[in-house]
Specification:
Largest interface: A-B, 44 and 42 residues
Mean pLDDT of chain B: 80
Helix content of chain B: over 70%
Number of helices of chain A: 11
Order of helices and strands of chain B: HHHHHHHHHHHHHHHH
Strand content of chain B: under 5%
Mean pLDDT of chain A: 81
Helix content of chain A: over 70%
Oligomer: heterodimer
Structural class of chain B: mainly alpha
Number of helices of chain B: 16
Low-confidence stretches of chain A: 282-286
CATH architecture of chain B: Orthogonal Bundle
Distance between the termini of chain B: 29 Å
Structural class of chain A: mainly alpha
Strand content of chain A: under 5%
Number of domains of chain B: 1
CATH class of chain B: Mainly Alpha
Distance between the termini of chain A: 43 Å
Chain lengths: 286, 350
């Protein structure tokens, strides 16, 4: 029981790292980016390539995955995304679906359609026995890494000048512009950071989440759940939503495998019925 | 959209010549009148039956995709609701028709009715979810509902055959007369007939005061309310109608292919529907049909070159269309239509 719970927590925290970038960009620019998962996939594949072909260590691959995904994010943002900020949601949805499709078949062209396996370093394999429960070292590592990332995020958001600019821009973009905050630049940087985090999450979770070319499509719904259920005004909402989702998914798949992912979708739709604007409400939604 | 409509109305020479004061009823009647290009369009759909007898299976797929896009057009083009999960109704209709043929009756028309009914019930029930919340919540809920159905169909293998699909149904001849043949002759004419009938209904619907009120809601929710329109009721109605249409499209696919697979519920199918509508342009009913023709021909052509990477080109087309501007693309078919109309003015107008 404790083991499963622990699995669920690790999974949930991983989901948070993957999805938090989407929460910020959605709240900031109201941009519905369904292609967010593609950056996560990029991070995962970079890890696989670097480890298999160049023999780099797993730990070294993580920051590289972050940097490459962030660069990819900023390039795409400057080239493509920025043209679509003021379009209606349908355009944004179509555009990002198009990107997802291209990412899927592009990846299967270069890497093949089969699942990629990340060979974890020996130090992350195995299990500890604590209080009668078996706890995977990989789970502990993921939880620790995600907790570090979250603390760093929270510090950046609350303690730095950039963080306060970002919060101001999310609260009210127009007033923030009036105060001389360059919202577009803030957004570009945030987009890059969000994509980078997704890449890092993809690299961290490549083993747990099964990496194959359909990754962006499979996890699109999870990211959207985290963001819609959690709301976009704070980091707390998405975090709570990720944990609930992660635990519910793992527990559901373990105890009632016959029902599968059905539980998640049902819970989500019910939650949205109860609070259409997310757990932590977004009344100020533009 | 409305701007072009007004332009068309202004340039039409005979408009209101006999009725100097235009009443709302006159206006609706005038907009309802059949135009020459419309008649040409439908005659052409019959002509292709004789011109390309070897491509009938493809063309029946086009008709079905066109019907699916038409149902999405009612939702998106007229009511302005973006749905990411319209395949839910398509798939539900497909499975209903399949199970109906296996367990109840093989009569195709009864199957269509059953599929439309079941899809409509789901549409009605889920319309209450869709009406709540913002655009994002809507996307989420429509996507969530369709994924729920996909998962349910996948898990309930005893009923749906799961990932293996649902084979082994027999569909009786249409009206007891026309047997479904290997070359798709019956399939095409049957799909086309159903498409045409449902198109007529849709045409009547969007030309009615109800259709106008939908456009008003899409244009400005607050103002439409102050005109005495109750948006929620109208949106529930159009959502239900649209899901009935999608369900019937799904049933047509089942009946003409005599097979159902999980693929009918996939996200890909919802995305295909959106793309078709975007190619053809929404809000004038023909967009879905023209889009379906272009989409299927493109698919046929690209798949022949690189079967595996069709998805890539599909994505590229989507990205390019959006960057280039949806309106400009959608204006394409319409400009062609208006050119045709200028070439061949109405004979009777003199």
């Amino acid at each position: 029981m404790l083991t499963i719970l622990f699995d669920g927590v690790a999974y949930g925290m991983l989901l948070f790292v993957l999805a938090c970038g989407l929460a910020v960009t959605l709240g900031l620019m109201n941009f519905i980016n369904l292609a967010h998962g593609a950056f996560a996939m990029a991070g995962g594949y970079i890890t696989v390539i670097l480890m298999d072909r160049l023999g780099l260590s797993f730990y070294l691959c993580l920051p590289i995955a972050f940097v490459v995904a962030a660069l990819l994010g900023i390039v795409l943002e400057r080239l493509l995304y920025r043209h679509l900020y003021n379009r209606d949601p349908l355009d944004q949805v179509l555009f990002s679906i198009g990107l997802v499709f291209m990412a899927i078949s592009g990846t299967s062209y270069f890497m093949g359609a089969r699942q990629q396996i990340v060979h974890l370093p020996a130090s992350l394999q195995g299990r500890w026995h604590v209080l009668g429960a078996e706890i995977g070292i990989y789970d502990v590592f993921i939880i620790a890494a995600c907790a570090l990332i979250m603390i760093a995020l929270q510090l950046v958001l609350t303690r730095t000048r950039f963080g306060s600019q970002l919060r101001a821009a999310v609260d009210d973009g127009r007033v923030a512009r009036g105060l001389g905050i360059r919202v577009n630049r803030v957004f570009a940087l945030t987009f890059a950071a969000g994509s980078g985090l997704a890449g890092l999450g993809g690299a961290l979770g490549a083993e747990m989440l099964t990496l194959d070319p359909t990754f962006p499509l499979r996890f699109m719904i999870y990211f959207l759940i985290v963001v819609t259920v959690g709301g976009t005004t704070s980091m707390t909402g998405p975090f709570v939503a990720s944990l609930i989702l992660g635990i519910a998914d793992v527990v559901g798949k373990y105890y009632v495998p016959g029902v599968g992912a059905f539980v998640i979708y049902a819970v989500t739709v019910a939650l949205l019925l109860w609070r259409p604007y997310g757990l932590v409400s977004r009344e100020t939604a533009r | 959209m409305t701007a072009t409509d007004r332009n068309l109305a202004a340039t039409r020479p005979t408009a209101g010549a006999d009725a100097p004061i235009e009443t709302p009823v006159n206006m609706l009647r005038r907009k309802q009148a059949w135009k020459v290009w419309e008649i040409v369009f439908w005659l052409a759909t019959i002509a292709v039956y004789f011109l390309f007898p070897s491509k009938l299976l493809l063309m029946s797929e086009i008709a079905i995709l066109g019907l699916f896009a038409l149902s999405l057009d009612l939702l998106l083009g007229y009511a302005g609701i973006v749905s990411l999960g319209h395949a839910a109704f398509f798939g539900l209709g497909a499975y209903t028709a399949g199970l109906f043929a296996m367990h109840v009756s093989g009569a195709p028309l009864l199957g269509l009715l059953a599929a439309g009914f079941v899809a409509g019930v789901l549409g009605f029930a889920s319309s209450f979810l869709v009406l709540r919340g913002s655009d994002l919540t809507r996307l989420m809920v429509t996507l969530g509902v369709s994924l729920m159905l996909l998962e349910a169909a996948n898990q309930a293998a005893w009923l749906t055959g799961g990932a293996d699909g649902l084979p082994g149904m027999t569909i009786d001849p249409v009206l007891g007369l026309f047997v479904f043949d290997l070359f798709g002759r019956t399939a095409y004419l049957y799909s086309l007939a159903v498409l045409f009938v449902l198109f007529l209904v849709a045409r009547r619907l969007v030309g009615s005061p109800f259709g106008l009120s939908l456009k008003a809601i899409k244009g400005n929710l607050l103002r439409s309310q102050s005109l005495g329109i109750r948006p929620n009721r109208r949106l529930i109605a159009i959502y239900t109608i649209s899901s009935v249409y999608a369900g019937i499209a799904g049933a047509l696919l089942t009946q003409t292919t005599q097979f159902v697979s999980l693929d009918v519920l996939s996200f890909q199918r919802s995305a295909d529907g959106l793309l078709v509508l975007v190619i053809g342009g929404g809000g004038y009913l023909y967009g879905g049909l023209i889009g379906a023709v272009i989409f299927k021909i493109l698919q046929d052509w690209i798949s022949a070159i690189t079967a595996q990477y069709w998805l890539f080109w599909l994505g590229l087309i989507l990205v390019v269309i959006v960057l280039f501007g949806r309106e400009r693309i959608a204006a394409g078919p319409r400009t062609i239509l208006s050119v045709i109309r200028r070439r061949f003015p109405r004979e009777k107008s003199a």
